[in-house]
What does this fold into?
Amino acid sequence: MPAPTRPVIAQQVTHNLSVISGFPEPRIMENQKLADLGLTQDLRGALAPGFKRIAQAFKPDAIITKTECKKLKTVKACVTLVFTRAGGTE
It folds into this structure.
């Protein structure tokens, strides 16, 4: 299985953020804070299943927990978490 690229992961993470937040994908930028998207700590926890599915498409044993997601503060941090768990390297 090929290693993920950051742009591919970023697009998928952005889609997941759009679904949970209700913001259109084109309006979600990597430098945004999750709070600006209306994502409370509980909603950030709800990102875990989607983020885990994205990572597992590249690395089947990848794990992303609700606790980890609740600590995320920015879109960039989300992308980095999923990218690294999917086996990507900068």
